[in-house]
Amino acid sequence: MAKIKIKQIGSPIRRPEAQKKILIGLGLGKMHRVVELEDTAEVRGAIKKLPHMVEVVD
């Protein structure tokens, strides 16, 4: 299965608790951290919920 790299670009400070939990679920939580995950519908959905906090890195 294909992989996708995700980088956190926004801070979770003063964000709703649900958004913080999505970040932790993606393996993020600190600024400028990059994780490589399977490219699944669940991961894509989580990215769409946080477009202001994460970006897909090529």
UniProtKB/TrEMBL annotation:
Q: Which domain of life is it from?
A: Bacteria
**Which keywords appear in this protein's UniProt record, sorted alphabetically?**
Ribonucleoprotein, Ribosomal protein
Provide the Large ribosomal subunit protein uL30-like ferredoxin-like fold domain boundaries.
Answer: 4-54
InterPro entries from the UniProt entry:
Ribo_uL30_ferredoxin-like_sf (IPR036919), Ribosomal_uL30_bac-type (IPR005996), Ribosomal_uL30_ferredoxin-like (IPR016082)
Keyword hit for Ribosomal protein: yes
Q: How does it assemble?
A: Part of the 50S ribosomal subunit.
Entry protein name: Large ribosomal subunit protein uL30
